[in-house]
Write a structure and sequence with these properties.
116 residues, single chain, alpha+beta, 5-stranded antiparallel sheet
Length: 116
């Protein structure tokens, strides 16, 4: 699936999804972004730090793939929002979503889109 189309389909899943973007292995946004009508909670310099930190964490989690199996998604529940990340080939799909979303179901809907 096209990278931008993947992000678009994820953004359309739920009105509470704020951001859906693909981050490459260098920590750069290569597709997607903030949903129209939403404002980023951090400035663009912080975005870059968040992306690089995300890539580093994803690489570190791979160390346990042989023992525990590969990561399907990771989630951080924060005061302001929920952040989810999904490995997609060599990239990472980063999602930010309002805290009132049903986070027991949304990641599995996103996995369906990724693996469709």
């Amino acid at each position: 699936m096209d990278k931008d189309e993947l992000c678009k389909q994820v953004l359309e899943l739920d009105s509470r999804i704020r951001f859906a973007g693909l981050i490459n292995e260098n920590g750069r946004l290569v597709a997607g972004g903030m949903k129209p009508g939403f404002k980023s909670l951090e400035d663009s310099r912080d975005d870059e730090m968040l992306y690089m930190e995300l890539v580093l964490r994803a690489k570190m989690r791979k160390e346990f793939d042989k023992v525990l199996g590969p990561v399907k998604f990771a989630m951080s529940y924060r005061d302001m929002l929920i952040i989810m990340s999904f490995p997609v080939n060599e990239n990472i799909l980063l999602i930010s979503v309002e805290k009132d979303v049903d986070f027991s179901k949304l990641p599995f809907k996103i996995l369906e889109i990724i693996h469709h």
